[in-house]
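# step 3/5: fold
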Amino acid sequence: MNKILLVEDDPLVSTLYSNKLAAAGYNVEIAVNGQEGFYRIHEQNFTAVVLDLMLPEMNGLNILRKIRAQKQFHALPIFVLTNAYLGETIAHAREAGATEVFSKAATTPRLLVDAVHRYFSGVSPVSSRAAAKPAKSAATEEPDGSLTDKFLAQTSDAVSLSRRVLQNLAKATNDSIRITFLRDLYRPVHGMASGAAATDLQSVSRISAALEALVSQLEANPRQLNASLLRTLASAIDFIGSICAAPRLSLQRDPSTARILVVDDDPISRRAVTHALETTNLKGTSVESPDAALGLMKTTSFDLVISDVNMPGMDGFEMCKSLRTLPENASTPVVFVTSLTDFESRAKSTLSGGSDLIAKPFLPLELGLKALMLVLKSRLEVSR
């Protein structure tokens, strides 16, 4: 019997994956942190390893590099689970010798078992590059109801904890204190991202994975933190809480198919916004003027509009007022991306019918997360 080591620190996720692997005929052992996993690979004769990259004690990427540096482990299959929005980490995992790389937001236990089966049956694995991208739809498998209920209860606690940590983070006065609170925030967010996909709660999985990536980026560079980012973090945490409080909400349409219109007279700014959307697997159509945007919106329904404010002729606020008169886009959410973040500008944004305002310069993941939330809100419906 093939013996598999699962290195995963979240108890709910490790239970889900180990149960599926065991039911498929594999002998599974669990290591709850990176250091334990590293030592057990050396101490026992495993035929495969399933490795989360975000682990306490020693991260999965370091384990992968150290294992591959040893000749006796060159052929050991190592299946990596990671966050699809951490593109650099995914690239490093491939370079370090991962057998396959899977996005947690797109991977259910069944998909992982299928990959292990393919490997041991001698079938060529799917491209790790493709596997790392968010899937267009969840795998068709019935989640364990009792574990889903347990995850929802844990998520309620994680959301409450995240809110408290965020309040402390907002009061932090220097980078060392910010890093401490960002690490405290990362732990519950990471748990939500891991458990949501495993229990097939795709909407929670997508938002929490993007949130996890943003928190990880801020931890690496806490000086990037500002009032706009704090609002985005708070909105994402509250959104996760609202979804989990209504578990009958289900994702009816894939958010990556959303029609998003980007309006800015500066071509560099337009490219920056479309790149930001790509960080969360969204795509945008860009135009250079409010007139061109309104022309499109007369005949095409968009899921989201992202607009600059200061543009020649008609500004973004005026454009927003005009689009509210168009039947096709009367209720389309509008996000303003601007350097004008004073109280008066925020008031104008609201009065014009805008949904939100993000400060320039922005982090791509911040705007990507904000856009993903707004698109998901329109695509969640109560399942019958």
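# step 4/5: annotate
Residues 147 and 199 are 7 Å apart (CA to CA).
# step 5/5: archive (pending)
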